[in-house]
Write a structure and sequence with these properties.
Layout (H helix, E strand, L loop, with lengths): L8 E6 L11 H9 L3 E4 L8 H8 L5 E6 L1 H14 L3 E5 L5 H5 L6 H10 L2 E9 L2 E3 L2 E5 H8 L2 H7 L1 H12 L5 E7 L2 E7 L1 E5 L3 E2 L3 E2 L11 E6 L4 H13 L8 E6 L1 E6 L4 E4 L2 E5 L2 E13 L5
Parallel strand pairs: 1-2, 1-3, 3-4
Antiparallel strand pairs: 5-6, 5-18, 7-10, 7-16, 8-9, 8-15, 10-13, 11-12, 13-14, 15-18, 16-17
Amino acid sequence: MQAGQTAKRALLVVNPRARRGTGSIAAAVARLEAAGLDVCEVKVRDEDTIDDVILQQASSCDLVIVGGGDGTLNAAAPALVKTGLPLGVLPLGTANDFARTVSIPPDLQHAADIIAEGHLRDIDLGDVNGHLFFNVASIGFSAELAAELTQHAKKRWGVLGYAIVAARILLRSRLFTAHIDHDGTTEHIRTMQVSVGNGRYYGGGMTVEATATAEDGKLDLYSLEVDHWWRLLALLPALRKGTQGQWDDVRAFQTTEVTIRTRKPRPVNTDGELSTYTPAHFHIRPKAIRVFAPPAG
């Protein structure tokens, strides 16, 4: 920082329940302060949310740094959109899929360096029934996974926790009927899961679509229309690479707006949190927030 310049004030909000949220971030904060940022950490009280804290502090800060995982970022999204404050990310969660999508390193000191460098990217957000998401929203298998994957399992097992709970759910999963309205058409399907992605990664490294970005102004939908659980196991390598759309029993397309209807209300998982129910209306919010991240490409 040059002489005479006023230090930018960075609001730091850390989720203590994130997998690494109770660890020390002192070295990362030291990097930020050495770069000239005035870092002010505010604790989230039991009666408040991260969203509340950001709104309360917005008038006295220049940027927000969120320490947590994808669920923590999801909780902060409404306030970030409302205030227009740029976002810095310290990845403290189990999967950190959004950080991976925009190439923010998992090492906290290196992530702090990215914030200090000051390069901002305009990032899209997905919206389902008024609930924002960074990565993906899903109906079906992933929503059941989100419901059963406890904070204890995440802290104890990390990404392995996803696999343990997923295997248990997979054995009892059944197809459900859904109607997908998009681009002037309605498709009637029987599916195990419908996922609508904004970014590239979700679920601890699964890939929505191999070429997806969080800056392309598009939503990527895929539907797993498989008959048997063993077929899903065969699909796993493609799901990790984001090439599942090439399979005959996977429906996939890009759009900017889609509605998914089911006979009975089904929960919708947004970035690992159950937030709403079908009927689910999805749309893209282009360039909704600014994020400190390495240049694209």
